[in-house]
């Protein structure tokens, strides 16, 4: 029985020593082995054998990058305003031995170092610069922490300011200032838009006025050209008409008797009108009456012996105006044939118009007293005409 108990005890001791001698270190960790209270070795991840009772794994250090968020801390700025700043630190243990034996608690040390360094940096800035210089604060803080934690076997990879909270009164003032600044920018933008709108409106009105003026100019030019063309055509037509009449008259060769008869026909038209208060008989009326009288007397003496106008030899009419000359000659012959029957009526109308226009005796012309017109009426003695 005794040997069995001894064997069981020995087996237990062996199993115990084997269990204590085998250590398994997880990945991304390092085991610090102490032998009889002193540092002996560092165990890498995996299976390791140590001496039981003599060696002991004192610490297991995490070698991964770690994130630590520190609570908000009050910090005084250069303009004596208290702001609360909370930070986030990203660090990694690079040397497990130094992180174990150089400092007791490297996380607490990093926190305190972060707070003191942050107060030192922010204390040299005013509030506005503090709120707008996060990147600068992060860079300076990371530089200080990396230099201080290097001897602890810790590397600070990144430092971030999670929040910067000024006092409520300062926040209210900042909001008012921000609101006023936004209102100012809105007013400036509105004024700029109004100005641009006015400029564009003026440009549009200018272009419209220019186009309207150009259109009116073109319209006036075209209207003036049309009027000029019309006047030219009208003048050419009048010139052709005058030339045609002139050629017809000269081709017809009218004599003094016909001209005198036409002159007497115009006298009643001259005397017509209610506005005529004074009518002056021209001196040429005597010659006209004399010509008419001579022609009538000649007709009375000669009678049928006077050759008819139809028997007279036709005048040679130029070829370009043959039709017009024939019409003028026919009109002249017809007028001479009717002259004998109408000359007395024309003389009487001329005398009545002359008497009425002279106001009953002024510049009256002497006429024959007998009913038969033996000769042409003689003009009255010439007296100075009233001016």
Automatic annotation (TrEMBL):
<dbReference type="InterPro" id="IPR050710">
    <property type="entry name" value="Band7/mec-2_domain"/>
</dbReference>
<dbReference type="GO" id="GO:0005886">
    <property type="term" value="C:plasma membrane"/>
</dbReference>
<feature type="compositionally biased region" description="Low complexity">
    <location>
        <begin position="363"/>
        <end position="387"/>
    </location>
</feature>
<dbReference type="GO" id="GO:0006508">
    <property type="term" value="P:proteolysis"/>
</dbReference>
<dbReference type="GO" id="GO:0008233">
    <property type="term" value="F:peptidase activity"/>
</dbReference>
<dbReference type="InterPro" id="IPR001972">
    <property type="entry name" value="Stomatin_HflK_fam"/>
</dbReference>
<feature type="region of interest" description="Disordered">
    <location>
        <begin position="301"/>
        <end position="337"/>
    </location>
</feature>
<dbReference type="InterPro" id="IPR001107">
    <property type="entry name" value="Band_7"/>
</dbReference>
<keyword id="KW-0645">Protease</keyword>
<keyword id="KW-1133">Transmembrane helix</keyword>
<feature type="domain" description="Band 7">
    <location>
        <begin position="20"/>
        <end position="178"/>
    </location>
</feature>
<comment type="similarity">
    <text>Belongs to the band 7/mec-2 family.</text>
</comment>
<keyword id="KW-0378">Hydrolase</keyword>
<dbReference type="InterPro" id="IPR036013">
    <property type="entry name" value="Band_7/SPFH_dom_sf"/>
</dbReference>
<dbReference type="InterPro" id="IPR018080">
    <property type="entry name" value="Band_7/stomatin-like_CS"/>
</dbReference>
<protein>
    <submittedName>
        <fullName>Regulator of protease activity HflC (Stomatin/prohibitin superfamily)</fullName>
    </submittedName>
</protein>
<keyword id="KW-0472">Membrane</keyword>
<keyword id="KW-0812">Transmembrane</keyword>
<feature type="region of interest" description="Disordered">
    <location>
        <begin position="354"/>
        <end position="387"/>
    </location>
</feature>
<dbReference type="Pfam" id="PF01145">
    <property type="entry name" value="Band_7"/>
</dbReference>
<dbReference type="GO" id="GO:0098552">
    <property type="term" value="C:side of membrane"/>
</dbReference>
């Amino acid at each position: 029985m005794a040997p069995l108990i001894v064997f069981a005890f020995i087996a237990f001791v062996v199993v115990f020593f084997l269990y204590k001698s085998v250590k398994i270190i997880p990945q991304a960790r390092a085991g610090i082995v102490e032998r009889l209270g002193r540092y002996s070795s560092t165990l890498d991840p995996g299976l390791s054998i140590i001496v039981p009772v003599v060696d002991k794994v004192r610490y297991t250090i995490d070698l991964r990058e770690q994130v630590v968020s520190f609570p908000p801390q009050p910090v005084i700025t250069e303009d004596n305003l208290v702001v609360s700043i909370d930070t986030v630190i990203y660090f990694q243990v690079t040397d497990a031995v130094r992180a174990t034996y150089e400092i007791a608690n490297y996380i607490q040390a990093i926190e305190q170092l972060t707070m003191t360094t942050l107060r030192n940096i922010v204390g040299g800035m005013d509030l506005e610069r503090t709120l707008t210089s996060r990147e600068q604060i992060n860079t300076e803080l990371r530089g200080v922490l990396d230099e201080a934690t290097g001897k602890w076997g810790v590397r600070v990879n990144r430092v971030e300011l999670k929040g910067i909270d000024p006092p409520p009164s300062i926040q209210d003032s900042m909001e008012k200032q921000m609101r006023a600044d936004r209102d100012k920018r809105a007013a400036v933008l509105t004024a700029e838009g109004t100005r641009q709108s006015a400029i564009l409106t003026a440009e549009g009105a200018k272009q419209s006025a220019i186009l309207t003026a150009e259109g009116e100019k073109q319209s006036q030019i075209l209207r003036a050209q049309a009027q000029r063309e019309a006047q030219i055509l009208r003048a050419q037509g009048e010139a052709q008409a005058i030339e045609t009449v002139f050629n017809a008259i000269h081709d017809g060769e009218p004599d003094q008797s016909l001209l005198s008869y036409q002159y007497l026909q115009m006298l009643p038209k001259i005397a017509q009108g209610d506005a005529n208060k004074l009518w002056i008989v021209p001196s040429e009326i005597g010659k006209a009456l004399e010509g008419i009288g001579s022609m009538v007397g000649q007709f009375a003496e000669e009678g049928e012996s006077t050759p008819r106008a139809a028997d007279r030899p036709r005048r040679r009419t130029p070829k370009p105006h043959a039709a017009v000359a024939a019409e003028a000659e026919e009109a002249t012959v017809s007028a001479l044939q009717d002259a004998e029957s109408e000359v007395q009526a024309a003389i009487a109308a001329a005398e009545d118009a002359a008497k009425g226009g002279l106001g009953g005796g002024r510049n009256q012309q002497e006429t024959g007293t007998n009913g038969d017109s033996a000769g042409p009426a003689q003009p009255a003695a010439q007296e100075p005409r009233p001016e």
